[in-house]
Amino acid sequence: MTLTFTPLPKIPLIHTGDDLTDIILNSLQAAKVTLEDGDILVLAQKIVSKAEGRLVNLGSVTPSKEAIELATRSEKDPRLVELILQESRSVLRVRQGTIIVEHRLGFVCANAGIDHSNVQPGETKGVSKNFASDAEDWVLLLPENPDRSALAIRRKIKIATGNRIGVMIIDSHGRAWRLGTIGMAIGLSGLPGLVDKRGWQDLFGYRLKITIVAAADELAAAASLVMGEAAEGTPAVHIRGFPYPLREGSLKELIRPTAQDLFR
Amino acid sequence: MTLTFTPLPKIPLIHTGDDLTDIILNSLQAAKVTLEDGDILVLAQKIVSKAEGRLVNLGSVTPSKEAIELATRSEKDPRLVELILQESRSVLRVRQGTIIVEHRLGFVCANAGIDHSNVQPGETKGVSKNFASDAEDWVLLLPENPDRSALAIRRKIKIATGNRIGVMIIDSHGRAWRLGTIGMAIGLSGLPGLVDKRGWQDLFGYRLKITIVAAADELAAAASLVMGEAAEGTPAVHIRGFPYPLREGSLKELIRPTAQDLFR
């Protein structure tokens, strides 16, 4: 069966409080896609974060002593570093322009996934602003609980359409050892993070050895590719043909426990 | 535009010396897929390695002193460890059952990508055997030069069909920090490894910051998902709808130089 990734058209600029489910259902209609059980919807972190009001103006942030010190080492804005620290469990590596952290959500990423691009003042409607600021000062944090965000959208879609689908929220992450970013799951609901094929047999009846597949991340990667990340502005993707059964799932499945991690 | 991944049916068991291009063209016909310029074909490492005779019987391997020592630490067969060392530039980490190496091709992976599954004696037709052995003793090395393998197939397809396509060879790799394997490019020809979007502007005219996308790996991930890795046996995938122009490309683009790698 063919696995398809269809970017969804006509997603408007998202503001705090927008109902992403309504917006996606309209977009599916515009794309002439009728949802089916087993489909998966993938949303870029940015639109989920914006809908949830995760914008912060740097003018409202007072950097701690630790943030100021780290800002010097990384040559970053101390206020941004303060937010990075607030969003992280620990700092793994520091170099110019980049602080690699273990995010409070468990995954390792650069700068706690805090994004400076694709934020403009018009989008901050509804965000309280009791400080002096200008457009460039807005940054966007990751959703507070992306699994929960995915679940909420999945439930609303179930109510609206009756379909049992999976919903995933993704972001672009760098990697150890390899260049370039790829899309990875940061939250999911209704699809497996991992597919465990241990005990499955190969063509000759031997048992497979290393066979826990990061299925959600494999979907996230290609979904990210069709989203693009610049002015194309297609932050939602419809997937059909996922070759495994849907089930409950969670980001936690994909996080390697620190004790098993040889590369920290 | 929808990005599609179609597993190719009716790929037979591959033996040393088989012409993969012929086999894939037959499979495309069986799948009723007519190639178009811009399409990409993805092959599992296993079938390329088998066609190239990269099978080794452990009975033919004499482990070095270093291999014997490492075999004790990793609880692996010293002869297999000898092959892992021969295929690697350096050993990064060792734990029970797993030796993480920098492969001679440049990427970091477990056990130098040497695979024990999906190899059976019937497949070793044409491989010289001047030693006592049994079926279980066969292992499969990665292709000697996967970029070159991909190029050769791409050229033959150009001659046979006239189409300008990309060809990629992939394998499943584990990752730092995250659980589960995902498909990654280990060789490519005729498509970009990375797509560099630095200088592109976001929706509001800001320049994007971190925007070098590992496009080949994003394709490899989803291709791996539709291949499956067990008895399904669909080691080739047709991709249509890649959203960037094809160009010459190489695995080297995707390898992070050691000096820039914070996690070794």
Short précis:
The structure is a homodimer of 264-residue chains. Chain A has helices spanning 20-30, 45-51, 65-74, 78-86, 146-161, 215-227, and strands at residues 3-7, 40-44, 55-57, 88-95, 98-103, 108-110, 138-140, 166-173, 182-189, 195-196, 212-213, 236-240. The first copy, chain A, has 264 residues and is of the alpha+beta class.
| Overall average pLDDT of chain A | 89
SSE string of chain A, helix = H, strand = E? Answer: EHEHEHHEEEEHEEEEHE
Q: So, CATH architecture of the largest domain in chain A?
A: 2-Layer Sandwich
CATH superfamily of the largest domain in chain A: CofE-like
Low-confidence stretches of chain A: none
How many helices of chain A? The count is 6
Task: Please tell me the total number of domains of chain A.
Answer: 2
Give the % helix of chain A.
25-40%
Q: Which two chains form the greatest contact, residue counts included?
A: A-B, 76 and 76 residues
Percentage of residues in strands of chain A: 15-25%
Structural class of chain A: alpha+beta
How far the N terminus sits from the C terminus of chain A, by CA atoms, comes to 39 Å
**Which CATH class of the largest domain in chain A is shown?**
Alpha Beta
Overall 3D geometry of chain A?
globular
CATH topology tier name of the largest domain in chain A = 60s Ribosomal Protein L30, Chain: A
Task: Characterize the biggest β-sheet of chain A.
Answer: 5 strands, mixed
Give a count of the beta strands of chain A, DSSP E runs of length 2 or more. 12
Strand order of the largest sheet of chain A: 1-12-2-8-9
Rg for CA atoms of chain A: 19 Å
Identify the quaternary structure here: homodimer
